[in-house]
Amino acid sequence: MNRMVRALALFAFALGLGTFLTPGALAQETSATGKATVTGCLQKGDEPGEYSIKSEDGKTYGLRSKTVNLAKHLSHKVTVTGTLKPESGEKEKAEAQETKSNEMMEAGDISVTALKMVSEKCQ
Question: Cα separation of 79 and 81, whole Å?
């Protein structure tokens, strides 16, 4: 019996770890509390003090932070965590009409509270 319990516990742990380490698992994760985790290439934003990141699922987010030095990670592949403020539907429609390029519109803004560098190069 004890052997079976250990085997099941090991299996459950391996399954959970496998899910966490699956490529793209951290690409974009949001929760009901407005927390977001996004992995992608960190770029300079359109406004002073703003940065942007394009997630692995193709969405673009505006980034700002009072606690994390985003500037030193420009052109790095990073995972950022913070509070997501989604773009409002009306604002997106107005911006889409004004934009003539094929660029993706921002999915929202993230106030970054943590950053983890994945790679010094964006691929």
Answer: 7
